[in-house]
Amino acid sequence: MVLPANSSVREQTDKDTKQSVKSGYNRKIIVQKGDTLYSIALKQNVTVARIKECNHLTSDLIIPNQVLILK
User: Fold this and answer.
1) Residue 49 lies inside a defined structural domain of this protein
2) How many angstroms separate the CA atoms of 47 and 50, rounded?
3) Total structural domains in the chain?
4) How far apart are CA 19 and CA 12, in angstroms?
5) Residue pLDDT, tens place only, 24-37
6) In whole angstroms, what is the distance from residue 2 CA to residue 71 CA?
7) Count of helices and strands (H, E) across the chain
8) Cβ atoms within 10 A of the Cβ of 35, count?
9) Residue 24: what pLDDT?
10) Exposed, middle or buried, 17 (CB in 10 Å: 0-12/13-18/19+)?
């Protein structure tokens, strides 16, 4: 199977020391040291509530290398 060069099936980026993997409509964010839900929400243009909802989080506690899903 040959995919066009601009295919968005799986795009990897490394911006602001944060890894973001796009797969369809879902984005996976790998939490880096010093990240907060608020800082991630600002960078990803979503709300903290949306991050918590997508990841079934009941608190604001996140840890480095944790994978967060954004839909």
Assistant:
1) yes
2) 5
3) 1
4) 8
5) 578 999 999 999 99
6) 27
7) 2, 4
8) 20
9) 56
10) exposed
- CATH code of residue 30: 3.10.350.10
Containing structural domain, residue 41: 11-70
Whether pTM exceeds 0.85: no
Which amino acid is present at 43? K
Q: Does some domain include residue 24? A: yes
Distance CA 25, CA 70 (A): 8
Q: What is the pLDDT of residues 48-59, one digit of tens each?
A: 999 999 999 999
In a domain, residue 15? The reply is: yes
Is there a domain that residue 1 lies in? no
How many residues are recorded in the chain? 71
φ, ψ of residue 35 in degrees (nearest 5)? -70, 150
Cβ distance 66 to 29 under 8 Å?
Answer: no
